[in-house]
Design goal:
Layout lengths: L1 E3 L3 H16 L7 E3 L2 H9 L13 E6 L3 E2 L5 E2 L6 H8 L2 E6 L16 E5 L4 H9 L8 E4 L22 E6 L7 H10 L3 E4 L1 E2 L5 E6 L2 E6 L20 E2 L10 H11 L4 H4 L2 H8 L11
Helix pairs in contact: 1-8
């Protein structure tokens, strides 16, 4: 069981899954899409699909992210699919996130607005309540308009998600002081469906830089792994791909192969997909001063 993400990065992963299925290199794969756009793409490629109603546990989910901090806390939702993405990825044994160096940041907030999905009913009221929260002090709340998959204003009417809801983008001029508290406070607001903070889902970052590999890890929960907030199924893996003009080498490939060994047997069949995607993104870990 494989969860298929939404967005420009996930598009290529879905494309490669379809090609591998067609060539026979991948077999016995069933996928769950996280948006109508991804569903349409997958069906055109002949990828077998189902929903969480049929399968509530996945082996792996593949997606991108809009921002990643050193603690592997993510902001997602730039493509407007944050609710379905979170529902699918939180029940995946392994969560693989592919990003480039432009998505890495010292702290969430300034590099990419935080999307919040809200109900259309009295949406301006809900937007104002969210913006007034102390945990997101200083943010500017902007109702997304036009195309839901684009967080840039390109229309007069509110953007509508696949779920029939609206999205408010919270713009920050400084880093969010405590992403966990912000996430909890936003979720408590009546009228909020969900938010784009994916916290506690990725416990390990694997990558490579020209002088060798470095691991980015979150604090242990005392059981040898990261505690999984809202994720009863266990650990997730965040693979951070950063653009660098370095040659692919054994030093680069080995960490990826070791990482794939952590994935369940059925998910290991996607190894070739990740390796081919690797040709698009040169791997490097990051260091935040």
């Amino acid at each position: 069981m494989v969860g298929l993400g939404t967005g420009s990065t996930a598009y290529y992963a879905v494309e490669r899954v379809g090609q591998k299925l067609k060539s026979g290199e991948l077999k016995d794969i069933v996928c769950i899409p996280t948006s109508e756009k991804t569903k349409k793409q997958a069906l055109e490629l002949g990828i077998p699909l189902c929903t969480l109603n049929e399968k509530s546990k996945l082996d792996v989910a593949i997606d991108g992210a809009d921002a990643v901090d050193p603690k592997l806390c993510l902001i997602k939702g730039g493509g407007g699919a944050l609710l379905r993405e979170k529902m699918v990825e939180v029940v995946s044994d392994k969560f693989v996130v592919i990003v480039d160096s432009s998505k890495l940041c010292k702290g969430l907030g300034p590099s990419f607005p935080l999307p919040v999905e809200i109900t259309p009913f009295c949406h301006l009221h809900t937007m104002n309540v969210v913006a007034s929260l102390a945990e997101v002090e200083g943010c500017k709340a902007v109702l997304r308009t036009g195309d839901c998959s684009n967080n840039k204003p390109d229309g007069d009417q509110p953007a509508v998600t696949d779920n029939g809801n609206y999205i408010v983008d919270l713009h920050f001029s400084k880093e969010i002081a405590d992403a966990t508290k912000a996430a909890q406070a936003i979720k408590r607001v009546v009228g909020v469906v969900d938010h784009g903070i994916f916290e506690g889902m990725a416990y390990q970052g694997k990558g490579e830089r020209s002088r060798g590999g470095v691991d980015g890890t979150r604090p242990s929960d005392g059981r040898g792994g990261q505690s999984q907030m809202n994720n009863p199924t266990g650990g997730c893996v965040c693979v951070l791909w950063c653009e660098k003009l370095i040659k692919l080498s054994k030093i680069v490939h080995m960490p990826l192969k070791l990482l794939l060994a952590l994935v369940s047997p059925s998910a290991q069949m996607l190894g070739n997909v990740f390796l081919q995607l690797f040709n698009r993104f040169h791997a490097q870990s990051w260091k935040v001063d």
